[in-house]
Amino acid sequence: MEILDYEDSLETYLGELSGKKITMVSAFASGTEPLIDTLIENDNQLDIVVGTINSLTAPDFIEHCVNEANPALALSVDFRYQASVNWKLYLIEPDIVIVGSANLTQVGVSLVRDTCVVIADATLYEAYLAKVQALKGTDGVLACSNSQAFEEALEGYREHHRRMQAGLTRTAHYLDSESWLEDDTNQSIPLFIWYSDHSQQSEDEARKYLKSSSDGVAWDDVREFFTYECAEGALPYEEGDVVLTARCNGSHIGFYTFDRILYRDGMYYIYAYRKKRYAMPFKLDGDKELLKEAIPVWYEECRTEINRTDILRVIR
């Protein structure tokens, strides 16, 4: 038996394997796409099952595995949400069982705050392998090879994940982006990038629509307003969302709460109200200069959210 920890991490242990059949079951997965690619490059066969508790498995991870389209990789997703699997299990043929608290996430496999034990026991291996096979046959657990049913379930899951992450952004309060990244439940942040300053006509219309909305908020209580042109129901934000906003040239970067959203004639009018304390998932501080270079790229890509990988790439 062997104990894995931060100095001898699960990521290192797995990354050194070659020519093995590896079965992984994790409550959620995110940010470990490079590890999956390394395992495949090392001629391993992967059978992965991930859960959807609190919608914490990143759709990016799922899509990466699906797009891999490699016979060496089989992926199943337990789409039962709160009833889905909560295991942290890694099986390596013929007899290795790894159990502990590490999910298949960037933070989890680093073991910076988790632990695992490695057990060499063929009987235990076979018993767990049988349980995994039974799990994969459970209603609501779908293999990505079941393309139509899987894609329909994944489409619904994407929206669940987006709304759950928006909720976390509203309630999260970290000292800085590094602290935000240390909690791997934080995976994405809503993003709004605008092109130019408002015209006087646009401001007059925003003022008029707010006044007629019976919201009870005076124009002087509006901190900022934004406009977004799209079909009704297609806006990727909801009232109450805390959104990272910026002008397309990388200026005016800040977090705003979208307190009031009104739709008029093909245009959404979004209002952020003045408050004594403004909600933000983390303090931007020195990150603004780093974000300045990324904003124009995200604008060209028409991004409406950024994920952990985006933030890591920018700040590190």
CATH architectural group of the largest domain: 2-Layer Sandwich
CATH topology of the largest domain: Endonuclease, Chain A
User: Could you give a short account of the major beta sheet?
Assistant: 8 strands, mixed
Tell me the span between the first and last alpha carbons.
36 Å
- Any idea of the CATH class of the largest domain? Alpha Beta
Q: How confident is the prediction overall: mean pLDDT? A: 94
Number of strands: 17
The number of domains:
2
Helices and strands, in N-to-C order? Answer: EHEEHEHEEEEHEHEHHEHEEEEEHEH
- Beta-strand portion reads 25-35%
- What is the number of helices? 10
- CATH homologous superfamily of the largest domain, by name? Endonuclease Chain A
Low-confidence stretches: none
Share of helix, binned: 25-40%
The largest sheet has its strands arranged as 1-9-7-6-2-4-5-10
How does the helix and strand content classify structurally?
alpha+beta
Radius of gyration: 23 Å
3D shape:
elongated
Task: Set down the secondary structure blueprint.
Layout: E1 2-4, H1 10-15, E2 21-26, E3 29-30, H2 33-41, E4 45-50, H3 59-68, E5 73-78, E6 88-92, E7 96-100, E8 104-105, H4 106-110, E9 116-120, H5 122-136, E10 141-143, H6 147-171, H7 177-182, E11 188-194, H8 200-212, E12 222-229, E13 242-247, E14 254-257, E15 260-264, E16 267-273, H9 287-300, E17 305-307, H10 308-315
Parallel strand pairs: 2-4, 3-8, 4-5, 11-13
Antiparallel strand pairs: 1-9, 2-6, 5-10, 6-7, 7-9, 11-17, 12-16, 13-14, 15-16
